Amino acid sequence: MTSPARNGDLHGNAPDTSPVALVLIDVINDLEFDGGEDLLRHALPMAESIADLRSRANGAGIPVVYVNDNFGRWQSNFTRLVDHCLNGGVRGKPIVELLHPENDDYFVLKPKHSGFFSTTLEVLLRYLGVHTLILVGMAADICVLFTANDAYMRDYRLVIPSDCVASVRESDRRYALRMMEKILKADVRPAAAIDLEELRQGRHESAAVEENGEADAPD
């Protein structure tokens, strides 16, 4: 099967080619579910770290891709999801205020846990020429883990900053990070330790976060 012709202008002013992409998983979320209040407590410092990382990614010419749950609605519209979270009086509003998408960002709606399952994510990444994924978002032990696993199976290099993911329980976040570091060979150092220019140039070297394999918790 032949690949679709490249049009040279995939999405306005967003980077149309990049070896690295920043993927935000389920950050557009109303958190209106059991455990949502606990998740919010951990997600607020996560969102602040992601916002800083996102700003650096923009400066480095790294495209931002939102991979978001469709909340079981096959007629979901991403713009409506954002509006619901910002204006619907929901628990997740402060997260979305920090991390709402910009006009040139890409987005993919997913029906299940993994960002790759029955979505266009793989096609988009191939079009962009991406081989390294920076995965951030929530929950670390569910949708981030499932997406990371599918990315690893597709030979993507993984960077999953420990302070840019959150779970309902801190123990679950730590366990997921240990598994992603050990099994999926992910770099799980905090975002401040990630040199984006080195990533773009393919010179980035991963390092263990701690000798015992546990990632530091967000402050």
| CA-based shape | globular
SSE-based structural type: alpha/beta
Total helix count? 7
Terminal Cα separation, in Å? 49 Å
**Unreliable segments (pLDDT under 50, ≥5 consecutive)?**
8-12, 207-215
Strand content range? 5-15%
Rg for CA atoms: 16 Å
What CATH calls the topology is Rossmann fold
Largest sheet: 6 strands, parallel
CATH architecture: 3-Layer(aba) Sandwich
Proportion in helices: 25-40%
CATH 4th-level superfamily: Isochorismatase-like
Order of helices and strands: EHEHHEHEHEEHH
The count of DSSP E runs of length 2 or more, i.e. the number of strands, is: 6
Can you give me a brief rundown of this structure?
The protein is α/β, with parallel strands linked by helices and 219 residues long. It has one domain (20-200): Rossmann fold (3-Layer(aba) Sandwich).
Description:
With 219 residues, the protein is α/β, with parallel strands linked by helices. The protein has a single domain, classed as 3-Layer(aba) Sandwich (Rossmann fold). 37% of the residues lie in helices and 13% in strands. The protein has helices at 36-59, 78-87, 93-99, 121-128, 140-153, 170-182, 196-201; strands at residues 20-25, 64-69, 106-110, 132-138, 157-159, 165-166. Strands 1, 2, 3, 4, 5 and 6 form a six-stranded parallel beta sheet that branches. Helix 5 links the parallel strand 4 and strand 5 (157-159). Helix 2 (78-87) packs across helix 3 and helix 5 packs parallel to helix 6 (170-182).
